[in-house]
Amino acid sequence: MSTAPASFGRRLQEETAARGRLVAGIDPHAALLESWGLPDSPAGLREFSRTVLEAVTGHVAALKPQSAFFERHGSAGVAVLEELLAAARAAGVLTILDVKRGDIGSTMGAYAQAHLLPGAPLEADAITVSPYLGTGSLDPAAELALAHGKGLFLLALTSNPDGPQVQHALTAQDTPVALEIARHAERIGGAAPGEWSSIGLVVGATVGDAYRRLGLDAAAPSVPLLAPGVGAQGAGPAEIADVFGERAGQALVSVSRGLLAAGPDRAALAQRAEELATTFR
Length: 281
Prior knowledge:
Layout: H1 8-19, E1 22-26, H2 30-35, H3 42-56, E2 62-65, H4 67-71, H5 74-91, E3 94-101, H6 105-116, E4 126-129, H7 139-147, E5 151-157, H8 164-167, H9 177-188, E6 199-203, H10 210-213, H11 216-219, E7 225-227, H12 237-244, E8 251-255, H13 257-260, H14 266-279
Parallel strand pairs: 1-2, 1-8, 2-3, 3-4, 4-5, 5-6, 6-7, 7-8
Helix pairs in contact: 3-5, 3-14, 6-7
Organism: Brachybacterium paraconglomeratum
Keywords: Decarboxylase, Lyase, Pyrimidine biosynthesis
Enzyme class: lyase
């Protein structure tokens, strides 16, 4: 008789306790590949991805590849992404695939199957999703994720300056959109007492007091928080503390440029990852 897989929330909580809250963003844009002396090609992507994975393994809570930077190279680039996800899984490194999927019904279910079904070519431990077709539109992905020990991160308060246009807007019930998303994440997350939910939120480290002022902290106390905006976008340890308050320990600090600029030397990358992990532990 097979046993249920450990929840993504529990695994993520264990990784952060052991290794700190750093998430390594893998964003291989053309200028970064060039700065590493690599071609802007699938071959360059492959060398870049292998180097980053080897360097940061053991120093980070998770990897966060940005799918678009692989997709722009067509099927050959997607093949490299498949290789990276499989290699990370073999190394025991959690992956949060940044794809921001959002659709309804069977289409949302198909996106979930592509990334969250065990054995799928593009299988990850969690993905980012967009709830802006209505929170219920994510149900097919949430159901599949929870059944297979996977996770979702719902876009709630993003780090880009245009986000408040929609995320701070009020629903027909006079509830901020971001707060409604947070309530939904907490409601469907299925967290056991004392454990993190497998359904998290994306909340930028640059959103100022909005996370607490809009009530997301109180509405979703069990969810992990994926926090972009650290480093090149201006946020540091002080901003993490200010933005998240008593929930700062649940904030996964996503760093890309501030980490990857230390490459291509593996030892330098590993040292930088350890420094960042220590800073945000």
